[in-house]
Design brief:
Blueprint (H helix, E strand, L loop, with lengths): L11 H10 L24 E15 L4 E15 L5 E16 L5 E19 L15 H5 L9 E10 L13 E14 L2 E12 L5 E11 L5 E11 L4 E14 L2 E10 L5 E14 L21 H20 L1
Antiparallel strand pairs: 1-2, 1-12, 2-3, 3-4, 4-5, 5-6, 6-7, 7-8, 8-9, 9-10, 10-11, 11-12
């Protein structure tokens, strides 16, 4: 999950002016744990890797099979060109040991269960305008309780492609390339609570297109290095449908390194699913702030300095310099 806004919850008010000016934060912004992704990008010139080691027990009452799955979830993210744009690759490579209960025969399936590349772009950010999001300097309570305006989410759109290369046993008959579109929203309900929701349409152009959603709530503890989350995900297609529930914790080791663990299960019996994931996120931070000259800033962006006041002061200084040179 995107923990950057509340991992430093006690310092949120102090950090507000900085957070409003850009998506980049001085603390890692990870989509882990879980599958719901934040509306925000990692920040321009930030390279980030997010990885999880997966163990899953999966039994299918309809097919009469039991299986154990070992795998790796990987996400590589890069802040491209400007703050609101991110390119990311997401992959899940699994090995499934499958046993047919009636005969005792076994089979091993190994391939990508998820392999996609896409772009995410932030189209709306409620924190972008500092005038509308100033903290209340006279009331701690006003800054820390729920307000209706907190429900207004940041919104991003995603477009990309899903790749099914070779003879993939998990997606037989699918073309090598299909398409994916998604919307991600994120609301800061309070300094300690963040709500994220995703809606996606995947494998467009195949015989088995897939609709899915994910809703996640994350809460930071008094020690802001620790956070807990709960997530609900729904998947629907002619090939597979289920409702999944996940919960887990994340720990911020340092500003560039986060560790996490979570577990979850499904509600169907074809197949039934029970899984646990141990993960981490690490970033290489090459971000540099772009400073704007004062006369290019919006009125009120830097105190109450106005453009015309700056221009007047510059003219006065230039005139004084000229007078000195003439003298």
């Amino acid at each position: 999950m995107d923990l950057s806004f509340f991992k430093k919850a006690p310092l949120f008010v102090c950090a507000m002016p900085f957070l409003l000016s850009a998506q980049y934060t001085d603390v890692i912004n990870s989509n882990r744990p879980g599958r719901a992704v934040s509306a925000y990008a990692v920040g321009k010139n930030v390279v980030q890797a997010e990885m999880g080691l997966v163990y899953e027990q999966q039994d299918n009452a309809t097919l009469g099979t039991d299986s154990n799955i070992l795998g790796t979830d990987v996400s590589l993210r890069y802040g491209l060109l400007f703050e609101s744009l991110e390119i990311n690759w997401e992959g899940s490579f699994i090995s499934q040991d499958l046993t047919f209960v009636s005969t005792g025969a076994s089979e091993k399936r190994t391939d990508f269960s998820r392999n996609r590349l896409g772009l995410k772009f932030l189209v709306f950010d409620p924190f972008k305008n500092p005038e509308n999001n100033k903290p209340n300097l006279y009331s701690w309570r006003a800054n820390n309780v729920f307000q209706w305006k907190n429900l207004i989410p940041a919104v991003s759109v995603y477009g990309g492609a899903t790749f099914t290369l070779g003879d993939n046993p998990f997606y037989p008959g699918d073309p090598n390339i299909s398409y994916r579109g998604a919307i991600a929203t994120q609301s800061r309900l309070s300094p300690r609570f963040v709500l994220i929701s995703n809606f996606a349409y995947d494998r467009i152009g195949t015989d088995f297109p897939e609709l899915s959603y994910a809703v996640s709530i994350t809460h930071a503890f008094r020690d802001p290095k620790w956070s807990v989350f709960i997530e609900n995900q729904g998947i629907k297609s002619d090939r597979y449908k289920d409702i999944l529930l996940r919960t887990g914790v994340a720990y911020l080791i340092n500003e560039n390194f986060q560790a996490d663990i979570h577990m979850g299960s499904g509600f169907q019996n074809s197949p039934s699913r029970l899984f646990a994931v141990l993960g981490f996120s690490y970033r290489l931070d090459f971000h540099k702030d772009t400073l704007k000259p004062i006369d290019e800033q919006k009125s009120g962006q830097n105190g109450k300095i106005r453009k015309k006041d700056v221009k007047k002061n510059r003219k006065k200084k230039n005139k004084k310099r000229k007078d000195k040179l003439d003298f």
